[in-house]
Every structure is written in structure tokens, then in C-alpha cells.
Amino acid sequence: MPVPASFLRSLHAVRSALLAGPLLVATTLGGHAQGLLRDAGIEHGLDRLARPILTAAGLPANRTRVLVVNDLKMNAFVVDSRTVFITAGLILRLENAAELQAVIAHETAHIANGHFARRGLNAQFARNAALVGMAVGVAAGAASGNPGAGVGVALGAQSSALRNFLSHTREEEAAADKSGMHFLAIAGIDPFALRGVLQNFEGQEDLLPGRRDAYAQSHPLSRERLRSVELTASALNPPERDRSEEVYWFTRLKAKLSSYLRSPAYTMQRLKPSDTSDAALIARAMASHKSSDLAGARVELATLLERHPDDAYLHELKGWLELEWRNVQPAIEAYARAAELAPREPLIQAGYGRALLAQGTPASDARALEVLKTARARDPYDANLLRDLSIAHAKAGETGLASLATAERYALTGRLNDAGVLATRAAGALPVGSPAWARAQDIMRAADTKKRR
């Protein structure tokens, strides 16, 4: 799939227009940057929570996704019609599945109501916003080297332009509240859950701007708004239905996210010894790993896999853990099973390819190349994957394709000048007119355009 030239030409502008207030960037907390936390299990859980809401809103559930921003501040936002972003901090603050679904429903309402498209943006900024949605929405990111919760780093940027973009009016917020609660009710979810979310932020408007949570700045709060939410929720009568699966995935994804981001001591102190739920076992496995207790982590995972032998995301977690400890063969076996159970999940395929590369035999290198090419076809803007794909091509003696994969990774992470150099090298080694050669040409033109500005 060729990388669109317009996408590459705009990467630098996107990096300058994006993240810092309510958005994402690279990951160096020393620089207070944020990124995306990519994990197949967490994203699957968010998908299970979002599907009934998206269906109620009349949006295609298989085209709109929810991604987690690596930021402990609390916020949620949309920048296009395909992706809802929620910060890790907000997810960790929410009490139950219905509250997280209320956040998703509110942001879905911004999509359904077309708010992001009606904000007086000029054509260039609108194009940049769409590019952000495309790039981040399909997992653009720099290599983090630590995918404990499947971490991949997103495109970086500054905050001022994005804050303007995300500054919803009170009218938009009121409309999104009402639409979102209707979506909740249609989906059989208590619309009063939105009240619980907003009550977390009561009193924020009395604080100085620098001390308010990001959610309160991008989603203006007021007592009148809260009263309006209560009135609307009171008039709705959601049908009763079994929501146990959604509750399960909420507790599971929150446990994994919390245990990944927080210290092992924090995690263990808050787990009751009698708690043997799946969420608790996942949290203990993560905490044990972070405490350098591989045996303990394996015990927890063994119990989980005995309960759920066909859970792809638990096999993936086992694969990641073994690979972190450089136990390559067990990692390959776990990833292979995960990929068998979830063959269309690119994050799992990417991990499988990485484990195969770590084995380093001619057969495993060849298999890694095959797996990584399949994953790239489903997620062409994942820089972690592109890094490994470049290595796999190089091992296969495909130097042109190796240079191209590195050029694409550099372009995605904002190193457009370096990308141009690698793309030029790739173009010289690739058949003229081939799809790969065309992708190299796109990067070269984008780098040349940047130099002339």
C-alpha cells in the first residue's frame, strides 16, 4: 500500500500542530511528552466496550477505534471520524465499565454530530487533522522497545494549535451530552453514568487554568451542564441486558493498564490475596515481571491460560513476557498460538515476527519476514513493525526494501530529512515503477518539499 504523498508532506506540519495539551507525542517523560499505549488486549477490550455504542450511533464499529494515550492527565478527544482517544489517566480514574462507555459515547457523539468538522478550521488545518486521524488511527509510532502493554509511540507535537482544535463550545458539549446519553440508553447502558464522569471534575472551573485537569479545559464543565445531564438521563429508559462481558473487559483492561504504568508495590498493595479474578491474575503477573520475578509471573499466567486456553491476548502476554526475558523459543510458541487464534490482529503478528527475528536462524528469519509483511499490510504506519521489517528484509538480502522500510519509519517519526536519504538509496535498488519504488518516490518528494520551505 503506497504511503500517500500528501500524508508525508504534511507530517512535519502535523508534528508542529499536535499534542501536548490533550494529545500525544514521543515518550520521554523528562520532556513531558506523551505517546500511544498500544496493546492488543487492551484495544480489544475497548472495542468490546465501544461496539454497542457505535452501533447505537449508526457508525461502523469495525472502522472506529478507541486508542489509549500515555498520559496520566485526564482527557478524551477526537480529531477525525475514525478514532476516539482516551488518556490512561482518565481510564484509571473511572469506576466502572458504564463510566468508560459514557466517555466513549460522548466522544462518539462529537463524531456523529460532526463537531470536529465545523469548527472554523481553514483547509490546511482540516487536512492536517485528517492526516492525524489516519496516521495515529492506524498506529503510527516510534519504536519504544518496551511493549509491556504493547507500547508504541505516536507522532509528536506541540500544543497550541491542537488546544484550539479541541476547545469545544458549551453548545457542542451539551449536544454531545444529550446524543451520547441517547446512545447509551439505546445500547442498554445507564445514561446516568455520564453524571458519574462529570462529577469527577466538579469544581474544576473555580481553579486556575494551569491547575485544571485537561478534561475540564477541553470539555467545559458547569453546574448547569450537570443539571442538564441529570434531566436528560432521567427521561431515558434503557432496556435491561446482560453487560457482564463489558464489565469483564473493563476490569481486565484497567488492571493491565494500571499494573503496567504503576509500581509493583502499588499494584500488590491494592490486590486482596483472596482475589483470584482474571484481572487480578493479570495485574499480579505484570507486577511480578516488573519485580524481576519471572517464576511468579509464569504461575499467574499458567492459571489464566488453564482457564482460557483459547484467549489470544493471554498467549500474547505470555509471548511478550518470555521475549522480555530473552526466552526466545517459549516466546515464539506463545506468539504463534496467539497469531493462530487472532490471525487478523497486527499487533500480535508484529510481536510474533519480532520473536522469530530474535531466534536468528535462516528459517525463523524467513518466517519473520512473511509474518511482518502480513502485519504491515494491516497496519502500515506502525514504526515498531517497520523497524523489524527492515531487519527482516536486510537478512533476506533485500537491501532496497530494507532501506525503504527504514525510510518509512523515519518519515512517520518526523525525521523527514533522514527519510529522504534512505528513500533515495531504496529507489536506486528497487525496480523502477514497482509499488515499493513508488513509495520511495513519495518520501523523496516529501523530503524535498520540506527542504524548500
UniProtKB/TrEMBL annotation:
GO terms for molecular function: metal ion binding; metalloendopeptidase activity. Residues 289-400 form the Cytochrome c-type biogenesis protein H TPR domain. Keywords: Hydrolase, Metal-binding, Metalloprotease, Protease, Zinc. Residues 46-230 form the Peptidase M48 domain. GO terms for biological process: proteolysis involved in protein catabolic process. CDD domains: M48C_Oma1-like. The keyword Lipoprotein does not apply. Its cofactor is Zn(2+). PANTHER family: METALLOENDOPEPTIDASE OMA1 (PTHR22726), METALLOENDOPEPTIDASE OMA1, MITOCHONDRIAL (PTHR22726:SF1). This is Peptidase M48.
